[in-house]
Design goal:
By secondary structure, the protein is mainly α. It is built from 17 helices and 7 strands. It has a 3-stranded antiparallel sheet with strand order 2-1-3. It has a two-stranded parallel ribbon with strand order 4-7. The chain has a two-stranded antiparallel sheet with strand order 5-6. Helix 2 packs antiparallel against helix 5, helix 6 packs antiparallel against helix 12 and helix 10 packs antiparallel against helix 14. This is Nitrate transporter.
Amino acid sequence: MDGKQRLTVADAVDYKGCPANRSKTGGWVPAALVVGIELCERLSTMGIAVNLVTYLVGTLHLPSANSANIVTDFMGTCFLLSMLGGFLADSFLGRYKTIAIFASIQTLGTGTLAVITKLPQLHPPPCHPIASKNCKQANGFQMGMIYLPLYIIALGTGGIKSSVSGFGTDQFDEKDDKEKAQMAYFFNRFFLFVSSGTLLAVTVLVYLQDEVGRSWAYGICSVSMFTAILIFLCGTKRYRYKISMGSPIVHIFQVLVAAINKRKMELQLNATLLYEDSAATSRIDHTNQFQFLDKAAIVADGDFEKSVSSAPNPWKLCSVTRVEEVKMMMRLLPIWATTIIFWTTYAQMITFSVVQASTMERSLGNFKIPAGSLPVFFVAAILITLAFYDRLIMPLWKKWKGQPGFTNLQRIAIGLILSTFGMAAAALVEMKRLSVAKAVGRSTATLPLSVFLLIPQFFLVGSGEAFIYTGQLDFFITQSPKGMKTMSTGLFLTTLSLGFFVSSFLVAVVKSVTGSMDGQGWLADNINYARLDCFYGLLTILSTINFVAFLVCAIWYKPQKPKQLLEMETSTNGGSGAEKC
């Protein structure tokens, strides 16, 4: 038995459904194949997003604020749909099939976008928006045709992102000390790899869009994703697959319904009297938080279908472990809520900061930097921060504290601090840019001001993302119940989604409150007449308040871990399946 335990991985199977052989499945190679899909997804999504605002303003002749909202709504939908992908992965498809199907959908979306941007009849006649006020905006049909591929891409992105990080961590066994240590490094290297895709997007892909043609660039995205799918499928025999435990959303609703139906019942003081049918190795100890949910575990008449020896009706009676799993998810929510504002500040880096760059001097010798490529400094900050953290901080911290780097909550806190400073720096730079615009004339197309003044805001927010993304990913995957990891990854990604939607909401509110009949205000159509510095200042204040709220939630948070005994779980995982294999 002991030898078998060492050879197989608990609660994981191979592509045939047999217990996963430790030496033949999992590890860094299969994890890298999984990450390859995410790299190409990032290349496509970010390659479109960072330069989409210039297409909407320059080709479709839309106002800058409207264009920024279209971009943030697109990005918000990408991450919001990760909840749908997570539900499908946990309930029906599994992570492997979810990744393959939704990657194919994104390939279709980028291919369609390549065709649409090529056809001249699908955008208005060309003109120069700054020189003329009579530029014809895209009509409803033309806007509908650009929305179609964008939201096909959003659907594909949502499905991929919900499962790819979880499927990557599935390739490492948390109960094996060596593989657990590898998993700790996986989160950083996963994001390092993903950021490399973003780097290619904001440099090579944006350059191709501006100098060669958008349709060619989007075609490359489609081909690269198709290639990544083929490579991903090549690893089918090497992957480890976690056994599905049913829909976590259904499980959550079962606990809520049972607790509500028994809301008038008196709760037992002795927690041992509550119902529990989970195996001893997978049980989660009872906690006193959210005690109203404990009523779902009170045994009452009619809870069992036929007799006490039969299984209970899950909508009437839930085990203590099932209740505690729901509590674990509820404990995540305050941290979840206080990380949304970071992604609101992040949204400015691919919208208004790009518009700022388009008005500034971008020449580097004989080469003119595309405005959409300015986020390269953002990505460079991520890569530098991750490399510094991975190669220096993590080893030193392990020697000093015995832990591989900062805790997930500490990384989130650092990210929030850096983004707050980033918005403050953005406000100061915008004040300088507006003073120059006022001095030389607000109608000047290119202000005599170096675009490199924008580097501090990109660098600070980029470094913040390196910490907060890895911290959030680690937090939501490791602090969620085993059967809800894909859904919790989707929950994490909704913070990105809501961050973009909050950005759109703030833009709409600020434009409405500060605007006037002539279109001026904090977010005027021409940002040389706007007060973007005040908008950035508002975000700085909101970020500061949010950080204080995060500290309160982090102090309140108390993690709860299920008991894990390898021997019992391996025995449970074996059984008839092992004999069959």
